[in-house]
Specification:
ABC_transporter_ATP-binding; alpha/beta; ATP binding; 4-stranded antiparallel β-sheet; 10 strands; single chain; binds adenosine-5'-triphosphate; 6-stranded mixed β-sheet; Rossmann fold
């Protein structure tokens, strides 16, 4: 299978000033030499405790943040240096309620983002209808987003993330704050994206979700990879992936 993400010994440091006179430098190694790859069509999980370096990694992969060093390639191009070749072919969704206009309907939100991506007017209606259908928003497509539930807003965010028909969709905690029904609907959508041939890289703190959805995953802790493989291989002889995860994280923190 074709590799669409390749990360090797990737590092990102942040330097901040501390102390009363802000003369002391503090270096945070947010991502400290991680390596993994993602193949086309996979649902790939990026897991780790708060502050492990997940968002920093996603920002580098989505061309929003420059690495300090290491290899960070997406669709065969350098995420920093060749970002123009990547941007039109990927998209990302961050959990929470940012990224859509609440004073517009779902349809108008999607028209707006279609225009930003320079999607020809002729193609827009067909694509928007198809996406609204996929995320189960067709019935409410013309109501203002401010009247939507949290789950509907989250689905509208996914719709926004699909507007450029991306080959890779990055999702940072897509089911955060959703009730069980809403979260399940979202997982169904993610599975349908895979059936459609898309690659999905997601972060989540929900281990059952990872077990259910992900083909492979990597667990990072303090910027370093502590485990990678299929949910089954990481679970090993533990009763659940969660048990195995807790032991792994405890092991490196001891
Ligand atoms: N702009 C920044 N300046 C300084 N430190 C930063 C910056 N961005 C992130 N960090 C630090 O880098 C480390 C990794 O942060 P990151 O947001 O990548 O973690 P995360 O795994 O996404 O966490 P969470 O699950 O809480 O979202 C943390 O220690 C964080 O404080």
């Amino acid at each position: 299978m074709e590799q669409v993400i390749c990360v090797e010994d990737l590092k990102r440091e942040f330097v901040s000033k501390k102390g009363l006179l802000r003369r002391e430098k503090k270096v945070v190694k947010a991502v400290d030499g991680i390596s993994f790859d993602v193949k086309r069509g996979e649902i790939f999980g990026l897991l780790g405790q708060n502050g492990a370096g997940k968002t920093t990694t996603i920002k580098m992969l989505t061309t929003l943040l420059a690495p300090t060093s290491g290899k960070c390639e997406v669709l065969g191009y350098k995420a920093f240096g060749e970002e123009k070749k990547i941007r039109s072919r990927i998209n990302f969704i961050f959990g929470g309620e940012m990224g859509v206009y609440r004073r517009l309907s779902a349809r108008d939100n999607l028209r707006y983002f279609s225009n930003l991506y320079l999607i020809p007017k002729k193609k827009q209606d067909e694509r928007i209808d198809k996406i609204l259908e996929l995320v189960n928003l067709k019935d409410r497509a013309d109501d203002l987003a401010e009247t939507y539930s949290k789950g509907m807003i989250q689905r509208l965010q996914i719709a926004r993330g699909l507007i450029n028909d991306p080959e890779i969709l990055f999702m940072d905690e897509p089911t955060v704050g959703l009730d069980p029904v809403g979260a399940r609907m979202l997982r169904d959508i993610i599975r349908r994206l895979k059936e459609d041939g898309k690659t999905v890289l997601l972060t989540t703190h929900n281990l059952a979700e990872v077990e259910e959805l992900c083909d492979r995953l990597v667990i990072i802790n303090k910027g370093k990879v502590i485990a990678k493989g299929t949910p089954q291989s990481i679970k090993g002889s533990y009763a659940s992936l969660e048990d195995s995860y807790v032991e792994l994280v405890k092991g490196v923190s001891a």
